[in-house]
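Morning run. Coffee first, then this:
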Amino acid sequence: MSKVSIREVRQYDNGLIKESLYKSLSEIGFDLARLKGKRIAVKPNLLLSSKPEQAIVTHPEFFRAAVQIIKDAGGVPVLIESPAIHSLSKVFRATGYDKVIKEECIEVDLNQDIMSITNESGQRYKHFEIMKSVAGTDLIFNLPKFKTHGLTYVTGAMKNLFGLIPGMAKTQWHLKANTRELFSDFLVDYFEAVCSLFIKPKGIVHLMDAIVGMEGNGPSTAGKPREIGAVIVSEDAVAADFIASSLVGFNPKLIKTISIAAGRGLGKKGFNEIEFDRGVFNKLRLEKFESAPLPFQVRLEKFKRLNNLIKRLTVERPVPIEGKCTLCYQCRQICSAQAIDKGSIVASFNYDKCIRCFCCIEVCPEAAIRIQGNILSRIFSPKH
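And here it is:
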């Protein structure tokens, strides 16, 4: 059985978080001696420049507590992250990480050099490029932020490691794996490749910030912060994502990364396969946690023989909102399909090129892009 620790924490207080993480690590049987004299990659979710209270990034005080534990144990924390659009320095300033990095004297990988890794067991994809610096570390402290996600349903422990792929290279994977099924397969193939670099005596520990998560149209500015009140820790990313998703009332069967990864033996799913504190789980369990609106394209994936014409009639599309769009063109910068051009009032979208990955929505700092359904999707979509 996999062990998952779930503890109640409702404030971003350094002392409370640190105490909780210490107890959680002990509960899952993690020996802190493994950190002594080692370089530990610390991978938070730093999607884009945003304030901590927006719940888009791993909270800086959660990050601080994690690096303090590493330092207390005699390890050397190294922050490794590559935001999709913004520079690290800009993200650090906006999120408050710059202050924590300075006060805790944290080493930061600024080179952003890349290396190739291979997963010969990959079902669809075998070759990936990630940040080279991660190979020079002995263990990963993965610090995901629990959020909803329009394509993968949730973003948690497995999805957070996607951030080890350098900046704009992420968008190429959205172009290559341009459906929910393909992207989920990619994430699991990639996750397995990263895990192969950190087999024992190395390892990956997942410390999830679910104190305040995100519901609704996540994982970015269009989502809504929602208190969950939990810190979730495990060495099994699949089990951590299963418990976190179940905690907010989601059906893990809808989260393809969980079912695919568990089916390949990469982790455990199911309450009878995971050791966790059911009392704390039941106390914190939420109802009516709002999921991201799944695109109609996702709901129609079972009809794999639909031709391109029918798809164009049924799938939603991203539409810029006049009056909110500031013409910053961060959407254009991240668009791997080159479907966005400059416009006079709002960005101009070419829907013949658009692959509906919705990365533009994810990075828009003003939440100025919405999903608009076509006629058939409005007729046949379930009412909420």
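DSSP finds 15 helices and 16 strands in the chain. Good start to the day.
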